[in-house]
Design goal:
Elements lengths: L6 E5 L3 E3 L5 E3 L1 H10 L7 E5 L7 H14 L2 E4 L11 H6 L3 E4 L4 H11 L1 H10 L3 E5 L1 H4 L4 E4 L7 E3 L9 E3 L8 H10 L6 E4 L3 E6 L2 E9 L4 E7 L2 E7 L2 E7 L1
Parallel strand pairs: 1-7, 4-5, 4-6, 6-7, 8-10, 10-11, 13-16
Antiparallel strand pairs: 1-12, 2-3, 8-9, 11-14, 12-13, 14-15
Length: 246
C-alpha cells in the first residue's frame, strides 16, 4: 500500500532491546509503518542490511521482532549475491523499507554496483516509505559524517541525494559528530542540513522536511546552515511519538 506522497523517515533510532526478543521495533519504525497507510493486514517491511554486511544473525533478530509485533519482515541481501533477481519488484511489494546502520561508504558503492540505488528511487516515487538508521539515514541525503574509513570520522559526499541536504547522525552520543558536521558545512564540503540526536528522526515528504520526531524524551533535532565561514545551529523540538521512552 503506497503512501500518499514519496516519503522518507531518516533516523538515529528505531530499534531497542526487546522484552522477549533481542530487539524490538521502537516508535520510529512503527511510525514509518503508520506513514505507509497499511490497514487490514500485516504490514510488510523489507530490511536492507548492506551497511552491516548482511549479517544473518541480526536478520534472525529482525525476523523475531517482526513476528512478535505482527509485522511481515523480508530481507534484501547483496552478500554473497543478490537474493532476488528482481530487486525493484521486491521493493514495490513492501510498505516500508528499513535500511540498517554500518558502513555508509560500502553501502553506497554496493548499491550502485548492483543497481539498487535505482530500484530504491522507483520504490520511493511509487510511495513505498523509505526509512533507516545511521548509514540508513545518511544514504538518502547528499552526505554526512561517517566512521566508514576508520575511527576518526570523515565526510561522505556521494549519498544518493534523493534529499538535497546533508545529514548528521548520532549528534549527541559520539563526540566527533557535532564539531565535524558543523565544520564541513562551514567550509562548504557539505550543504546545509539536518542533524538528529539518538532516538530522533526527520520526516520528509518528497524533498521537504515536514516534521521532526522523537522516541526518547528530551532529545533534539537540529537545522545546521552555513553562515559566512561558520555554521549556525538551530535546535528544532521534535514531536514526541506514542510509546516514547524516558
Amino acid at each position: 500500500m503506497p503512501a500518499d506522497t514519496p516519503t522518507i523517515l531518516a533516523t538515529s533510532g528505531g530499534l531497542r532491546p526487546g522484552s522477549r526478543t533481542e530487539i524490538e521495533f521502537s516508535p520510529l519504525v512503527l511510525h514509518a509503518i503508520e506513514l505507509s497507510g497499511v490497514t487490514g493486514r500485516a504490514p510488510k517491511l523489507c530490511h536492507i542490511g548492506t551497511a552491516g554486511g548482511d549479517q544473518r544473525h541480526f536478520q534472525a533478530w529482525f525476523d523475531a521482532a517482526g513476528q512478535a509485533q505482527g509485522i511481515t519482515v523480508s530481507h534484501l541481501n547483496l552478500f554473497s549475491m543478490p537474493n532476488t533477481g528482481d530487486m525493484t519488484g521486491l521493493l514495490l511489494e513492501q510498505d516500508v523499507v528499513w535500511v540498517g546502520g554500518g558502513s555508509v561508504a560500502n553501502l553506497l558503492a554496493l548499491w550502485r554496483l548492483h543497481g539498487l540505488d535505482q530500484s530504491l528511487r522507483l520504490a520511493w516515487e511509487a510511495g513505498v516509505v523509505l526509512a533507516g538508521v545511521s548509514a540508513g539515514s545518511i544514504c538518502w541525503h547528499v552526505g554526512g559524517t561517517t566512521d566508514s574509513f576508520g575511527p576518526q570520522l570523515r565526510p561522505v559526499t556521494n549519498g544518493l541525494a534523493f534529499l538535497p541536504y546533508s545529514n548528521g547522525v548520532h549528534y549527541d552520543s559520539e563526540a566527533q559528530r557535532r564539531p565535524l558536521y558543523q565544520g564541513l558545512i562551514a567550509d562548504g564540503t557539505l550543504p546545509d542540513g539536518w542533524a538528529t540526536d539518538d532516538g530522533t528522526g526527520l520526516l520528509y515528504h518528497r524533498t521537504e522536511l515536514v516534521e521532526t520526531l522523537s522516541e526518547v524524551k528530551g532529545k533534539g533535532t537540529y537545522r545546521v546552515t552555513r553562515d559566512g565561514d561558520k555554521a549556525r545551529e538551530e535546535r528544532v523540538e521534535p514531536r514526541l511519538l506514542p510509546g516514547a521512552a524516558g
